[in-house]
Amino acid sequence: MIVNKIPTMVVYKYELVPPEGPSGTLAEIELPKGATILRIAPQGGQFFLWALICKDVQETVKRKWLVVGTGHEFSAKAFADIALIAARDGRSVPFEYQETALALNDALVFHFWLSHPVP
User: Fold this and answer.
1) Model-level pTM?
2) pLDDT in tens, 20-51
3) Number of H helices and number of E strands within the chain?
4) What sign results for the dihedral spanned by CA atoms 32, 37, 39, 42?
5) Could you count the other beta carbons within 10 Å of the beta carbon of residue 110?
6) Dihedral (CA of 45, 46, 52, 55) sign
7) 81 vs 114, more confident
8) How far apart are CA 20 and CA 26, in angstroms?
9) CA torsion 76→16→60→62, rounded to 10°?
10) 19 CB-near residues (< 8 Å, 6+ apart)
11) Which among 57, 59, 112, 118 is most buried, taking Cβ atoms within 10 Å?
12) How far apart are alpha carbons 102 and 115 in whole angstroms?
């Protein structure tokens, strides 16, 4: 008799450390393969990402992320740079909008995008 192991799932929290540079500068985060992003929100003055992961998965993938404040100009070059990297490998790595989060008693509004795994 074959018994399928039921995976153990857990929600983990990851700090999103803002990159140095102007609004729209890309940053990178390493997450377990197959992670499902649940939420991005501020906590204690810093932004965090919560993801549902399978504890049995050991492999990780790098994902690019981008944060832009409302009214802040940024270059679409960030999105284009990732597309060029993917194109070299014949893969598509689009960015997906993830979340709009409020900070400093709702005085600041930030918008987050996250790439699919980077080749």
Assistant:
1) 0.77
2) 777 667 788 999 999 999 999 999 988 999 99
3) 1, 7
4) positive
5) 20
6) negative
7) 114
8) 9
9) 20
10) 25, 26, 27
11) 112
12) 21
Give the residue among 93, 102, 99 at the shortest CA–CA distance from 113: 99
| Exposure string over 20-56, b if 16+ CB within 10 A, otherwise e | eeeebebeebebbeebebeebeeeeeebebebebeee
**CB of 55 within 8 A of CB of 9?**
yes
Lookup: tokens for 31? 């997450």
Residue type, 36: T
CB 69 within 8 A of CB 23: yes
One-letter amino acid at 97 equals Y
Strands lying side by side in the sheet with 46-54: 9-15, 46-54, 36-43
